[in-house]
Write a structure and sequence with these properties.
The complex is a heterodimer of chains A (322) and B (528). Chain A has helices at residues 3-32, 37-42, 48-57, 64-76, 94-129, 134-148, 151-165, 181-215, 218-225, 230-259, 262-267, 273-282, 286-314. The longest helix of chain A has 36 residues, at 94-129. The two termini of chain A are 19 Å apart. Helix content of chain A is 75%, strand content 0%. Chain A is mostly helical. In chain B, strands 1, 8, 9, 10, 11, 12, 13, 16 and 17 form a nine-stranded mixed beta sheet that branches. In chain B, strands 4-5-7-6 form a four-stranded antiparallel beta sheet, with helices on one face. Chain B has a two-stranded antiparallel sheet with strand order 2-3. In chain B, a hairpin with a 5-residue loop joins β4 (103-108) and β5 (114-119). Chains A and B meet through α2, α3, α7 and α12 of A and α7 and α13 of B.
Chain lengths: 322, 528
């Protein structure tokens, strides 16, 4: 078997195992949350009787182990169950709740990634190329400033100037399934911009550091002595060997775009999966919480896996560990 | 003085109606623009006009919301599912009176044990079906019965039998209740179409209201369209409700013109909002109140002197000013809001009085008293700050209060009704009986002070079936006094509903029974 294929299979197996362990952790943690759904949704107005009726209806009266086994068994078959918000005659499956929200989040994440990743790589390479120049210093300080500010503050600043004062962009990112692509992009512009400002520094600095690190190696010295141009040295010789750390930090930030954008979603009222999960936690809609957590875990595992595979594939030495 | 001047004076002292003024002005040859200018300076509400899309941003709503009126938790579902698209048998008017809505009239029997509601003629549901007494019966039965999870279950507990009788709906109660029509105005008691074979159809969201639901997306918003067959008023062509939980986002959406109305303004920044020339801020004192409750069955709160000491150790004015930025009225340990019929302001008015506190503690033999107070912002926003201020003022009067900050998400589960001294809130009720039955009657499920006063409970039953208004008034006054003097309730403030709206929309007098113009904003507002 080709060493890369073997590695991929190994990592996939490991990923599934991690996911399995994570599912147990999620289930236990959620069961230990104080309070319960019936009381949370019925609010202050709940009496013992109504709570008991509700718990029975949603199956919370069964023992935890039985509930876990039933849950994970269904998840394996791609069945996430019904939200606790379902009623008799009104079924709301977790899948139909999550699907549009996940699609929204992925849209925002892709939009942001499409801006942020090329921007970060370009800035990083240029900064490495013109190390210690004025350009390098400006890029560094600006990105450091934007990453140091809390993202909600960043979001409010952008909203204040671009939406309230200048009225260039809408401050509410409320989209739904019928929103046209162009309007969708306009509505997502502010959140995407906020996220870009938040993640660009990390990727850009890692790119710059990785390349600068390599520039000290003997083979780069050799390339230079051959009289190659600076940019060619970096793009042709340094960059391919710098992919491993860069890809890792890119994957990390992409994962963040899916699982960590709760604050930005809340500020711009974007109906993404982060908001759904917060909502579900507050109302103790456990099936939704569990499904979201599992999706988040899977996203992390998958993106890390991809990063690993890319690093290995671009660096043959990692294929044959001693 | 010429006729035009006279007419203007009549307008400024509100002696003429808007319509009369305009007719007479036209007769005098005054231009419409000039006449309307005078009217608006004289403070006449604008004449409503039809058209436009009204965009509402609400600080509530979750993905678990549903159109089932039994589980409406708050303003979002109430505004969409009831206020805009449905109707109850009765409704409140701006003066706090109960008037017919889907019911044309309602009559009690002499002992108020039976109520007959006569339905308005020829009202149709959004799907064209005529409303019958059977629809009403099924809608009510939806909340009753053993397995009901309805928030309206407790107020319907007193209903023994409900039946259709031609155009009438007849309620037989277990005991007399002169206030029953008030219950019928509750936002959970929306009238829905009956299903064949029993039950009410809530799934479709079909109602009788001024708007029909086009789209309902829980936790995100709703789109509504005017119902042209509605028997009452409806001015907008379309209404959009957006759930914007974050208050800063809601404020921004309003200032940037993406919504016309927001509820629950951020009290810390509302003054800045007031400076915006395009925006009006409205403030309504409703029935809601923020409270600290003592369990009177537990030491040291079982001692009335200790309870009174605590009632006088809190500086309500300071809390109203510092925590609620003036958007609240200091309470006087009476849960009945001043605008409710039969409300009194019991004497002596409880104010901050350290000398009296020390005296009372001495009398109780409890000098140097230490008590634990459980608070969380889940009880009401600002509860933690209010608790801290209470601690400060009480310390100066010789009471040491340990303010314990509890976790928000299990507050109603693990703290309220469990710990002896906690922060809480009530949205209030429009009648004395309703409020007392819910929270102060001996056997009430939510009697959070565990107060069981025999005289109070005796009066409660007697007043309920008393149809002589003066006699009821005396009874309710005595009950409020008892509660004020002896109960375990510290009513910190009556909280105001503070909302803001763009001047692109206009409104008349606001309802005070619920927030968001009594949740009926969609039918009561119009484009300016």
């Amino acid at each position: 078997m080709h060493p890369i294929a073997r590695t991929i299979l190994q990592r996939l197996g490991l990923g599934l195992l991690t996911l399995f362990i994570v599912s147990i952790v999620i289930f236990s943690l959620v069961s230990w949350l104080p309070g319960d759904f019936a009381k949370a949704i019925l609010g202050q107005a709940a009496t013992e009787e109504t709570v008991a009726a509700f718990q029975k209806e949603i199956g919370l009266d069964k023992p935890p182990v039985q509930r876990y086994v039933e849950w994970i068994g269904n998840v394996v078959q791609g069945e996430f169950g019904s939200s606790f918000a379902s009623r008799v005659g009104y079924k709301r499956t977790v899948a139909e709740l999550i699907a549009p929200r996940l699609a929204n989040t992925l849209f925002l994440a892709s939009l942001t990634a499409a801006i942020a990743v090329p921007l970060a790589l370009a800035l990083g390479i240029l900064a490495a190329l013109y190390r210690n120049s004025l350009f390098d210093r400006i890029v560094n300080s600006v990105t450091l400033t934007t990453i140091s500010m809390p993202e909600f503050f960043m979001a409010y600043l952008l909203m204040l100037f671009l939406s309230v004062k200048l009225r260039w962009l809408p401050g509410l990112a409320s989209v739904d399934a019928e929103t046209e692509l162009l309007e969708r992009i306009t509505r997502c512009a502010l959140p995407a911009l906020t996220l870009t400002l938040v993640i660009v520094a990390h990727m850009m600095r890692m790119t710059r550091a990785a390349i600068i690190n390599l520039l000290a190696s003997p083979y780069i010295e050799m390339a230079r002595l051959k009289g190659m141009s600076k940019s060619r040295v970096i793009l042709r010789h340094a960059l391919p060997n710098a992919w491993a750390p860069i890809v890792n930090v890119v994957a990390f930030n992409l994962a963040y775009l899916v699982v960590g954008v709760v604050v930005v979603e809340a500020v711009f009222t974007y109906p993404g999966i982060g908001q759904l999960m917060v909502d579900a936690v507050t109302t103790r809609d456990i099936p939704v919480v569990q499904a979201c957590a599992l999706i988040f875990a899977a996203t992390y595992i998958m993106l890390n896996l991809t990063a690993d595979i890319i690093s290995i594939a671009t660096n043959p030495r990692l294929l044959h560990p001693r | 003085m010429n006729q035009w001047e006279e007419l203007q004076q009549a307008a400024f002292s509100k002696r003429v109606s808007r319509r009369d003024f305009m007719r007479r002005a036209t007769a005098l040859g005054i231009s419409t623009a000039l006449a309307t200018g005078v009217l608006s300076r004289a403070g006449y509400a604008q004449e409503p006009k039809k058209g436009g899309t009204f965009k509402i941003g609400l600080g509530h709503g979750a993905t678990t919301d549903s159109l089932d009126p039994a589980t409406y938790p708050d303003q979002m579902t109430g505004t969409v599912g009831w206020g805009a698209t449905g109707n109850s048998l009765t409704e409140m008017d701006t003066a706090g009176n109960i008037v017919g809505d889907l019911a044309e009239s309602f009559e009690p029997s002499a002992d108020a044990k039976q109520w007959v509601f006569k339905l308005r003629n020829g009202v149709t549901f959004h799907n064209g079906k005529t409303v019958t007494a059977n629809d009403v019966v099924q809608s009510y039965l939806h909340h009753m019965g053993k397995d009901s999870k309805s928030a309206a279950k407790s107020i319907l507990e007193s209903v023994e039998e409900i039946k259709a009788d031609g155009d009438n709906v007849v309620f037989k109660l277990k005991g007399g209740n002169a206030d029953f029509p008030f219950y019928a105005s509750d936002y959970h008691l929306k009238i829905m179409p009956a299903k064949d074979g029993g039950g009410a159809d809530w799934e479709s969201g079909i109602g009788t209201g001024p708007y029909a639901i086009e789209k309902f997306d829980p936790g995100v918003g709703a789109k509504l369209k005017r119902n042209d067959n509605f028997y009452g008023k409806a001015y907008f062509d379309e209404v959009e409700v957006k759930v914007i939980v974050d208050v800063a986002a809601r404020t921004n959406a309003l200032t940037s013109g993406e919504i016309h109305f927001m509820d629950r303004c951020d009290l810390k920044t509302v003054n800045l909002l007031k400076k915006n020339p395009d925006i009006n801020v409205t403030e309504v004192t409703g029935y809601g109140h923020y409270i600290f409750v003592m369990n009177v069955t537990q030491a040291p709160f079982d001692n009335p002197d200790v309870r009174n000491a605590l009632k006088n150790a809190i500086d309500r004015d300071e809390i109203a000013k510092k925590v609620f930025h003036g958007y609240a009225t200091a309470g006087n340990d009476n849960p009945i809001a001043p605008s409710v019929q039969y409300a009194i302001n019991p004497e002596p008015i409880h104010t901050y009085n350290p000398e009296l506190v020390k005296e009372l503690l001495k009398k109780a033999g409890m000098e140097g008293l230490t008590v634990d107070l459980s608070v969380s912002d889940a009880a009401f926003s600002g509860a933690v700050d209010a608790g801290t201020l209470f601690k400060e003022s009480a310390a100066k009067a010789g009471i040491n209060i340990n303010v314990i900050r509890e976790a928000s998400d299990s507050y109603w589960d693990a703290v309220w009704l469990k710990k002896p001294f906690v922060a809480s809130y009530w949205n209030g009720r429009p009648t004395c009986d309703w409020m007392f039955t819910t929270a102060y009657a001996a056997e009430a499920a939510w009697n959070d002070t565990f107060w069981k006063n025999p005289r109070f409970n005796e009066l409660l039953v007697a007043a309920r079936s008393e149809t002589d208004s003066a006699k009821r008034g005396t009874m309710y006054a005595e009950m409020q006094q008892l509660l004020h003097d002896d109960g375990g309730l510290i009513n910190i403030v009556f909280n105001n509903y503070v909302s803001a709206h763009s001047k692109a929309v206009a409104h008349g007098d606001l309802l005070s029974n619920w927030d968001v113009d009594g949740m009926k904003i969609a039918s009561r507002w119009w484009m300016a």
